[in-house]
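Narrative of activities, Objective 1.

The group set out to show that a structural description can be obtained from nothing but a protein's sequence at a throughput compatible with the screening campaign. Below is one input-output pair from the validation batch, recorded exactly as produced.
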Amino acid sequence: PACQIPLIFDKKKGELVCRYCGQSMSRQETCPGCGRQLKAGRIKGSQFLVERIKKALPDLNLALLEEGEEKSKIEGYLKKIKSGKIQLVIGTEYALPRLSPGSFSLVVVIEPEIAINLPDFKASEQTFIRLFKASELLANRPSSKLMVITSMPDQPSIKYGAQADYPSFYREELEYRQLLKYPPFSLLVSLTLSGHNLRRVAGASRQLGEELNERFPALEIIGPKVKPRLWKKVQKEVKLYLRLAESKEFFALSQFLEDFSHQHSQARLSYRILL
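Output recorded for this entry:
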């Protein structure tokens, strides 16, 4: 409730859990705010998949690797996987760096396109990396297969990631970034103004935009966008992206932002270069 996002139902504990702050609460039939009947979400998680597979293949030894499991339990699973006592592993991205390359004859990736819709110019690159890492789990045998279940098979990060074809993905991604003037063809700065009072934060963002336009006329300002911070309802954020045609302008910009931050204490200003 504090983070203003849907809660995940942990069937083992019988609780509703926030995947960001970790807050949990007992399962309820009605909304504590409006009193209406609560409905289950349409997205099925890893626990649902485990249940379905156990019903279909009850004799199969199975392990679930995902964030939130006890460390000792994860370590026990990994030992059994290495010794061959577990035939099937279900996992989230959390599992990728923990599994040994070349250990599986079949790897299935379900709906990798979910991450592509994130508001991040590197979302496609990250999707390719995940698929590439998944392909590295395959044993070096002709019978080994990577299966990708997706509604976007022609999306470059998915198509080339499934083929482990880095050169082709690199060429296409570079063309895309050049067309939209994303790094490395420009310098992109992510800038955030945050505070408890939305009016003050929004006012500071308007003033910042006016001063940036006056001081740096060639600067492209993308935004602003207002959103509550996921882990704290009372904290508000105004987010902007600044695009510079030349990197040599960044020193003057960073100095300006530092001065602006000192002069406007009603909002906390932070920024970082997106590479």
